[in-house]
């Protein structure tokens, strides 16, 4: 029987947007606001719902892709799985240690060298120094940063950031790996290496969650795809079926 790695039930995430009113109203009310004893309440127009009633189950060892237009809620959803932010409401259950690469430079201290950041990342994931030592050479070789591993990462290019970040996550121990647009940075050879490595990780029983606008890569890699639109799940199922529906919807716009 398959184990569930991630279970979400009716997950919602609300952000409070800035109140919008004409400048003359702001200026006229500024002095009054300073002395008013009445609490200021936000109305529904100030609320931004990034996610609305999102529900799904992901089994251990699955590779799941996420698609949708910018602002659809993909990154917010992955931040909740990564425990970076909390949902406003709903129930979530995540089984296993989570490691994520959600943007260039995530988890790296800019003033530390690449070497120091590898050990820092490993310790954050709960690994012993001896365990990191065993994997260190493989991490550097896979990343391709070579002798620049001793350079402060603030001097790395965006491609070097992503290559080293992905290499650290791929070689250290975690049950759930989350990647947001990692395939959009770097050259074609490195993207192919990433795809091959993610296949290996999934084959070893790890769960991979991947956001990408490169649909061809998702076709090669993913077992299933979740399509989000305006914070809601439009479709969740077999990769080709969902991607075909997503492509058709874009063609109709």
Radius of gyration based on Cα positions: 21 Å
The major β-sheet equals: 6 strands, mixed
Strand tally is 9
Distance between the termini: 42 Å
Structural class: alpha/beta
User: What pattern of helices and strands is seen along the backbone?
Assistant: EHEEHEEHHHEHEHEEH
Strand residue content: 25-35%
Average pLDDT figure: 83
Helix run count: 8
- Contiguous low-pLDDT stretches (5 residues minimum) are 30-40
Helix content: 25-40%
Strand order of the largest sheet: 5-6-7-3-8-9
Large-scale geometry: globular
Short summary of the structure?
The protein is globular. The chain has helices at 23-35, 74-81, 114-124, 129-143, 158-171, 188-203, 215-221, 239-251; strands at 4-16, 47-59, 63-67, 89-94, 98-101, 176-180, 207-211, 224-229, 232-238. With 253 residues, it is an alpha/beta fold.
Notable characteristics:
253 residues, 38% helix
What does this molecule look like?
The longest helix has 16 residues, at 188-203. This protein has helices spanning 23-35, 74-81, 114-124, 129-143, 158-171, 188-203, 215-221, 239-251, and strands at 4-16, 47-59, 63-67, 89-94, 98-101, 176-180, 207-211, 224-229, 232-238. It is an alpha/beta fold. The protein has a six-stranded mixed sheet, with helices on both faces.
Structural topology:
Layout: E1 4-16, H1 23-35, E2 47-59, E3 63-67, H2 74-81, E4 89-94, E5 98-101, H3 114-124, H4 129-143, H5 158-171, E6 176-180, H6 188-203, E7 207-211, H7 215-221, E8 224-229, E9 232-238, H8 239-251
Parallel strand pairs: 3-7, 3-8, 5-6, 6-7
Antiparallel strand pairs: 1-2, 1-4, 8-9
């Amino acid at each position: 029987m398959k184990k569930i790695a991630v279970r979400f039930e009716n997950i919602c995430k609300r952000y409070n947007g800035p109140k919008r009113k004409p400048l003359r109203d702001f200026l006229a009310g500024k002095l009054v606001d300073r002395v008013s004893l009445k609490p200021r309440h936000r109305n529904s127009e100030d609320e931004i719902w990034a996610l609305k009633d999102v529900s799904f189950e992901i089994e251990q060892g699955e590779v799941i892709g996420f698609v949708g237009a910018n602002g659809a809620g993909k990154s917010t959803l992955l931040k909740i799985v990564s425990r970076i932010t909390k949902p406003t409401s709903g129930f979530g259950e995540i089984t296993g240690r989570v490691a994520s690469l959600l943007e260039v430079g995530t988890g790296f201290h800019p003033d530390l060298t690449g070497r120091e950041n590898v050990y820092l990342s490993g310790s954050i994931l709960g690994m012993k120094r001896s365990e990191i030592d065993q994997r260190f050479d493989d991490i550097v070789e896979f990343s391709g940063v070579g002798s620049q591993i001793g350079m402060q990462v603030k001097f790395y290019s965006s491609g070097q950031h992503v290559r080293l970040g992905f290499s650290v996550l791929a070689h250290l121990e975690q049950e759930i790996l989350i990647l947001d647009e990692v395939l959009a940075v770097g050259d074609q050879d490195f993207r192919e290496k990433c795809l091959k490595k993610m296949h290996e990780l999934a084959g070893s029983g790890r769960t991979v969650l991947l956001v990408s606008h490169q649909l061809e890569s998702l076709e090669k890699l993913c077992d299933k795809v979740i399509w989000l639109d305006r914070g809601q799940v439009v479709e969740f199922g077999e990769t080709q079926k969902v991607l075909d529906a997503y492509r058709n919807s874009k063609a109709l716009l």
